[in-house]
Amino acid sequence: MTSIARVALPIPRREPFDYRIPSALVDQVRPGVQVRVPFGPSKRIGWVVEITDHSPHPRLRDLDSVVADSAAIEPDLLELLKWTADYYLCGIGEVIECAVPKSVRNRKARTVRWVRLTSEEVAKEPSGATSEPRQKVLDHLRQQDHPVPLRRLLESCDISDSPVKTLARRGVIEIFDALPPEFGIPDGSGKPLESSLITPSFEPNPQQDEAIAAISATLEKQEYRTFLLHGVTGSGKTEVYIRTVQQALDQGRGALVLLPEIALTPQAVERFTERLGPVAVLHSMLPDSQRAVHYERLRRGEVRIALGARSAVFAPVPDLGIIVVDESHESTYKQENSPRYHARDVAVMRAHQLGVPCILGSATPSMESLENARTGRYQKLLLSNRTNGRPLATIEVVDRRVEMKSVGGGGLLSQRLIERIRTTLDRDEQVLLFLNRRGFARNLHCPSCGHDLRCHQCDIPLTYHKSKARSQCNYCGEHKPIPDRCPECQFHGMHQRSPGTERIEDSLMKLFPGVEIDRLDRDTVTSAKRMASILQRFKDGQTQILVGTQMVAKGHDIPGVTLVGVLDADIALGLPDFRSAERTAQLLCQVAGRAGRGDRPGRVILQTRQPEHYALSCATRQDLGQLLEEENSIRKLLKYPPHGHLARILCEDEEEQKAYESAKVLVEAMKECGLDSVQVLGPAPAPIERLRGRFRQHVLLKSLHRGPLREVASTALNTKPRWASTRITLDIDPQNLL
Ligand code: ADP
Ligand code: ZN
Predict the structure, then answer these.
(1) Which of 68, 78, 608, 609 is deepest in the core (most CB within 10 A)?
(2) Nearest CA to 507 among 625, 391, 406?
(3) By CB neighbour count within 10 A (0-12 exposed, 13-18 middle, 19+ buried), where does 16 fall?
(4) What is the rounded average pLDDT of the residues 151-176?
(5) CA-CA distance, 225 to 93, in Å (whole number)?
(6) Which of 500, 491, 494 minimizes the C-alpha distance to 568?
(7) What's the CA-to-centroid distance between 463 and ligand 2, angstroms?
(8) Whose CA is closest to atom 10 on ligand 1?
């Protein structure tokens, strides 16, 4: 019987490719190894995902060779990658491509040459008998007392490499390849040098203690459990991560810590390294070659902690003992191109497969996580106070309907806010103003009573379509003529004015001449450097008022800020997405958390036209628990997550009609499945109807059960669309419905 290897290649195809294993290679070819295979006229490198003895394909080609010194994927990690491909209905090759840095896939991990004295030479007394350049090299190496990168040695001694080569030939020194110096000094055993670790000056408080104890118990028993660590901003969640990760290390196991991309600043990395020792850093802002080095260090067991963004959930940590997902509510954990995985959910699955604890930390957990905690699937751990004893900021709501007359900034700077800004500046304190104006909040809105036109079937705001002169539901396609009066209060002239951050900055300069004002949004931030410099100026107190979009909302800790103004708290509520209330409440809590981090108390002003909306009242009380109750009833009724499962199929085409017709064919095929437990909604124009020259139609699938939902979704993937030009994408558990 011939053995067959199923090989994943980095192309968007769901099934792996089958190859015969030549008998000479049978012993070496096993799941997880990298192999070279013929593909069309060329050769490609791929990973073996399975060994089998049968294939549906009649004529198979022979596998070419096993890649020497292959970056093999360990069986448990391969299991996770397979689960991901299977769950999100995408190709395993694509998942591997996202898990493994390119330089590792292409066998190009960057190493440099190092030089050290041989052990006999270290023992010897300096003789002084050699020629001058060689003596310089020996002196230098003796002084350093550890291996030195060849490049630096040549520079410091100001010599060519020939004396070094001579010394190596004579067995006085050794030249060897190792990872570059920024990843630690190789001390021969391949282990990084111990760094000087810092011990904190405080003991955990009782709530932290309780959380740590619960997680330790699970670590001790070596069993799976997911903890929802719900702690207000500044409540010391990181301390809980650090201490439990330390326990996993003490057990001789590894750890995986995920942070949102934007939070992976050098300071954040430092906080972990100064307590836990060296970590491997993996995120997309690093050049691939550096990611590759970190990846390799993990794989070889030289470092046992991986710290990274979304894709680090696939980091090759040997003997992984604990997984942490910080800011676990962040939508950046969901990848918005293929493979469209959610790193939080993959993390929970990885913990489950390995039988280890997983900690989901957040000040504003997602509805899904809160619901899982409520039903007992996750264990909830609460940190309800800031560690420095500071109260959370006082929140004051300004009803914009009362101040109808425009005071400044197109009606977005109320009298109350302007007064507060003035008193804050008088006290030499700083102001942060937040306006999340993203392009297209075009829904029909009554400026008088705050009413939004909504779809009765889907409970999302209808979108105003100027070209068609109608309002339309972007989920189900239902549409209505535009009323010329508000159906609630009969106000004439429904519309939405939308001044942006730039206009606000302009108004502020007129209102506060001589005050340093800066702006942080996608227009002013052209690079990570630019963003850092704007924030640094604010931190240093050079800027007194900073205006910005959601870029200012998260994570930054600026002690001088005592006033935070949210100019239009309703913006996100108007987005045609069932998560709009949840996102609004989360964002407002996060923004509010920016005020009063220092030793002076903070104040937040929320300007809104819907002060009675529960998303706002939850944010005002900083109580996400209430949100759960309000949202649950709506989501249960409409079977939205967490009370149902969603999938979204997007059809994009340069011609509107073709996008629609292709989507229609898929809908018909899906309905023919006859699975009544799956609701197929649409096709309807996506809220962003046209993107980069393509018209977008989407179809939503809703079901109480995942199994049938995935079956129907795969039917769509296996159906030939009406037009070959239509691009079809499937998103399981979509986070973004725009
Ligand atoms: P979070 O991650 O919940 O926002 P942090 O972990 O950043 O909070 O903690 C905020 C600050 O409090 C940090 O400077 C941290 O060192 C400090 N801290 C944490 N735990 C304690 C404690 N038990 N006693 C005193 N300070 C603490
Ligand atoms: Zn609808």
Answers:
(1) 608
(2) 406
(3) buried
(4) 88
(5) 30
(6) 500
(7) 11
(8) 234
Would you list the DSSP string of 322-387?
EEEETTTT-GGGB-SSSS--BHHHHHHHHHHHHT-EEEEEESS--HHHHHHHHTTSEEEEEE-S-T
Expressed in angstroms and rounded, the spacing between residue 235 Cα and the centre of ligand 1 is 6
Residues in the chain: 738
Please tell me the distance from the alpha carbon of residue 519 to that of residue 547, in angstroms, as a whole number.
Answer: 5
The answer to whether the beta carbons of residues 576 and 737 sit under 8 Å apart is: yes
Contacts 24+ apart (CB under 8 A), 164-172: 164/115, 164/137, 166/134, 167/134, 167/137, 167/138, 168/115, 171/118, 171/120, 172/117, 172/118, 172/121, 172/138
pLDDT value at residue 629: 81
Distance 611 CA to ligand 2 centre (A): 25
- Structure-block tokens of residue 317: 């940590």
Give the tens place of pLDDT for each residue, 100-148: 988 777 765 556 788 988 877 766 766 665 668 888 888 888 887 788 8
Strands of 53-149, DSSP E: 61-62, 65-66, 112-117, 148-149
Alpha-carbon distance of 606 to 588, in angstroms, equals 8
pLDDT of residue 287: 81
Cβ burial, residue 251 (10 Å; 0-12/13-18/19+)? middle
Q: Among residues 381, 428, 397, which one has the least CA distance to residue 598?
A: 428
- The tokens for 735 are 């986070």
Q: What are the pocket residues of ligand 1 if the criterion is a CB atom closer than 6 Å to any ligand atom?
A: 202, 204-205, 208, 231, 233-239, 387
What are the tokens at 285? 């802002």
CA–CA dist 721, 481 (Å, integer): 32
Q: Tokens standing for 439?
A: 């392009």
Residues 551 and 570 sit within 8 Å (Cβ to Cβ):
no
Ligand 2: distance of its center to the CA of 460 in Å?
7
Return phi, psi of residue 711, to 5°. Answer: -65, -45
Helix (H) or strand (E) holding 564: strand 561-566
Ligand 1 atom with minimal separation from the 204 CA? 23
In 3D space, the residue among 48, 99, 90 whose CA is nearest the CA of residue 72 turns out to be 48
Rounded to whole angstroms, how far apart are CA atoms 453 and 31?
55
For the chain, helix, strand, coil in percent to 5 are: 35, 25, 40
- Give long-range contacts, CB 8 A cutoff, 24+ apart: 20-28: 20/60, 20/61, 20/62, 20/63, 21/51, 21/62, 21/63, 22/62, 22/63, 25/63, 25/65, 25/66, 28/66
Mean pLDDT estimate for the chain = 85
Query: What count of other Cβ atoms lies within 10 Å of the Cβ of residue 584?
Result: 27
Please count the other Cβ atoms lying within 10 Å of the Cβ belonging to residue 158: 8
Sequence letter at residue 600: R
pTM: 0.82
- Mean pLDDT across the stretch 219-227? 96
As residues whose CB is below 5 A from the ion ligand 2, the structure lists 455, 457-458, 473, 475-476, 478
| 3-state DSSP assignment of residue 523 | coil
